[in-house]
TrEMBL record:
All residue ranges annotated as the Phytocyanin domain in the record: 30-126
PANTHER family hit by this protein: BASIC BLUE PROTEIN, BLUE COPPER PROTEIN
Full protein name: Plantacyanin
Source taxon at top rank: Eukaryota
CC annotations in GO: plasma membrane
Family matches, as SUPFAM superfamilies: Cupredoxins
Keyword hit for Heme: no
Pfam families: Cu_bind_like
Any one GO molecular-function label of the UniProt entry: metal ion binding
Keywords recorded for this protein, A-Z: Copper, Disulfide bond, Metal-binding, Signal
InterPro entries to which the protein is assigned, alphabetical: BlueCu_1_BS, Cupredoxin, Phytocyanin-like, Phytocyanin_dom, Plantacyanin
Length: 126
């Protein structure tokens, strides 16, 4: 009987440990409002993310007037050229939530002239 108690206690401890690991992973993700209280605006590329400790799994929230802006997830070439290119994903709700993978992600506004005026960001998530 004592052996069964040890085994059950070990199993219970393992389940508890794994549950805490999962909870820690879920709690770790954070929401970031791009541009803070200013939102998704021109000239943001020099202001944001500005050294924020962003991690894979964190969520970027883009807030903007959808009649005059959008958010397009692009690759590095699209970011540098301000051109969405084939396969780029466009968001247009005015309150877009994008979960970041680890690595660098690139976002632009594809309305004419906006990206060239700094309405673009690159975000590196740890």
């Amino acid at each position: 009987m004592a052996r069964g108690s040890i085994s059950n206690t070990s199993t219970a401890n393992l389940v508890l440990f794994l549950g805490l690991v999962c909870l820690t992973t879920v709690v770790r993700s954070k929401e970031w409002v791009v541009g803070d209280d200013k939102g998704w605006i021109s000239h943001i590329e020099h202001l944001w993310p500005g050294g924020r400790p962003i991690h894979g799994g964190d969520v970027l929230v883009f807030k903007y007037a959808s009649s005059v802006h959008n958010v397009v997830e692009v690759n590095k070439a699209g970011y540098d050229s301000c051109s969405p290119g084939a396969g780029a994903r466009t968001y247009s709700s005015g309150n877009d939530r994008i979960t970041l993978p680890s690595g660098t992600s690139y976002f632009i506004c594809s309305f004419p002239g906006h990206c060239k005026n700094g309405m673009k960001i690159s975000v590196t998530a740890q």
